[in-house]
């Protein structure tokens, strides 16, 4: 069974709907890009409140 042919008005409506959806997707993509941010993580190793120094034997615990 063949689908009925679309009228000119229906074709125009479909083109506008497609255009609207594409424009919305482009707008959303730009909104997501604008929401990007930078995260910086700083790790400062410490032992008993003092900075951790790896070239010295000053880091001992209760077992040593």
Short note summarizing the structure:
The protein is mainly alpha-helical. It has one helix at residues 8-34; strands at 46-47, 50-51. The chain has a domain at 8-51.
List keywords for this structure.
64 residues, two-stranded antiparallel ribbon, mainly alpha
SSE map:
Layout: H1 8-34, E1 46-47, E2 50-51
Antiparallel strand pairs: 1-2
Describe the 3D structure.
With 64 residues, this protein is mainly α. It has a domain at 8-51. Helices cover 42% and strands 6% of the residues. The chain has a two-stranded antiparallel ribbon. The longest helix is centred in the N-terminal third of the chain and has 27 residues, at 8-34. The protein is rod-shaped, with a radius of gyration of 32 Å.
The largest pleated sheet is described as: 2 strands, antiparallel
Task: Give the helices and strands as they follow along the chain.
Answer: HEE
* Approximate strand percentage: 5-15%
Mean pLDDT: 81
Give the number of helices. 1
**Integer-rounded radius of gyration:** 32 Å
Q: Major sheet: order of its strands?
A: 1-2
Class of secondary structure makeup: mainly alpha
Task: Count the E strands.
Answer: 2
| First and last CA, distance | 88 Å
Q: Overall 3D geometry? A: rod-shaped
- Uncertain segments: none
Helix content: 40-55%
